Fold this sequence. Notes:
Low-confidence stretches: none
Strand order of the largest sheet: 1-2-3-4-7-8-9-12
Bound molecules: D-mannonic acid, manganese (II) ion
Amino acid sequence: xxxxxxxxGEGNDTVTLTQIKQIPGVEGIVWALHDVPAxxxxxxxxxxxxxxxxxxxxxxxxxxxxxxxxxxxxxxLPSRDLYIDNYKKTIVKLAEVGVKVICYNFMPVFxxxxxxxxxxxxxxSTALFYEKEKVAHLNLDEQVQRINAxxxxxxxxxxxxxxxRLTELFDAYKDVTEEQLxxxxxxxxxxxxxxxxxxxxxxxxxxxxxxxxIFGLPRIITGxxxxxxxxxxxxxxxxxxxxxxGSLGANPANDIVAIVNEFADRIPFAHIRNVRVxxxxxxxxxxxxxxxxxxxxxxxxxxxxxxxxxxxxxPDHGRHIWDEQCRPGYGLYDRALGIMYLWGLWxxxxxxxxxxRIGD
Length: 360
Ligand code: CS2
Ligand code: MN
């Protein structure tokens, strides 16, 4: 397991590369050019800037999250070819700086969705929260205004230019079914996977978060059967999965240990975090510790270890603790604690199952 840490870039993250380097066992950053709109080719000079900063900090940059997919690709419009072409051009450039994994998602219009970014937990820490009933009645205009009122941080998937087109996009999706979305994904994968393979970059689809349709928009990366179907659309080791325990875990019907066991050799990247799912379907993000949420984090790490997992892994979201002011879900402290928990589980496995001394 190779530990990495998400970094939003100079001036766009409260966490510094020096701090990241001090977290035990972290070898690289998970990065992206967050100011490049989905569908555009990434400029090489900006990629080099990140490379120089990472090199200076002694961290690698082999994992990108995300090169976002333009809506026209998800919609299957004729203009998708142009955006697929741009995607390929970006792949070439990323290969040039040594990128090995690209995490991306195939969710229409929205990336992750929550109803409260600072919901208080019993201990006074705050975390991202999803109230199921509220999403059913959410006023989208209000939501758009709220995000636009906080220009300091760009939120993944909530880019202003996408929000400006919201009504238009909803309209465009009105006839796109789950089946159609799978078809459109297939078209994209058939173009991209052989190309990525040629450049030795593994594509890693991120599960939908939450893993069910919202606002009447279809979602397809929701559970084990659909993941199998997606990976079989183009059956190649370069068509992989980002195993995100928090996203999949929001639906308690998902058996994530089984998902790890079935797709182990197709998982180049793992996001590990816990959530606590309530009986009414609401969920809140908790500390990584197994007992704090409803996801079997220990079981997942055991399963990764049993499968000799050699891919990249990052703690996903963390709570906001110790008065840290940070991007929602992406503070330093709780994610660093999460890493130490993951290492604890991993090292205990190594010692127990292989009789290895830690450090060998
Ligand atoms: C991430 C997602 O912060 C998060 O929830 O796990 O935004 C993720 O980066 C994208 O869905 C992957 O494309
Ligand atoms: Mn994730």
